[in-house]
Amino acid sequence: MKDCEIFSNLKAPCSSRLVVRMDGRNFSNLAYRLELEKPYDRIFVKIMTDACLDFFKEFAPGFIYIFSDEVNVLLDYLPFSGRVEKINSVFASFISSAFTRHLLNSKFCADLQDIKPISFDSRIIPLDNLGLVEYFKGRQNEAWRNCLNGYAYWTLRIKYGKEEAVQILDKREKQGLHELLYQNQIKITEVPSWQRRGIAIYREKIEIEGYNPIKDKKVTSQRFKPYLDCDLPIFSGDFFYSKKIIKE
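Given the sequence above, the corresponding structure tokens read:
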């Protein structure tokens, strides 16, 4: 029967850095069931970031980028000997479980009786350093489009029904959405940075003060801890190299 496991030996290329992208399955229905605040719900965002912090502490990746129900994980190493099937299944199941645990501990706990089990899908993307920068710039651009379209859609929904709001959006170019929001007293470039640019988790160097009993003096040492960055700049190569996420 072992011969029937046709994908069990498929491995990621050892010469590449790996990005694992996980997306919430049918989260639009989950948002409806939980009656999430639109276009952004702070409690939902906290559940996502708490689940990703759990993931960071468990697997020690180099970088995690989050927006909406999407999680992008940049690995510093090849886990499970690079076995694609293993990476996808373990990572997706871990983030699904972590998300569910934090959801159960949130204000939504009383509203979960009719909620279907939470699941994420997962895919592996092997990239070189240049490709990594372009990849995350592309995902951040997607976060910006989501922000712009989300604010425009829910602004229109206040005045129009669902179908008419969609029809109006389909006819407007990007600049038209800016104007529409401005007319409704929303300056889209001034909404919180985490809504426009997403959220990241990476290692931050800190100094720990201690005591050396042999030398009888205070000493400092350096440690790294997960840092949740909710005020990201626009991604560039300088950002990834300065944070040591990508090394020369």
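The chain has a mean pLDDT of 89. Try to locate this feature in the token string yourself.
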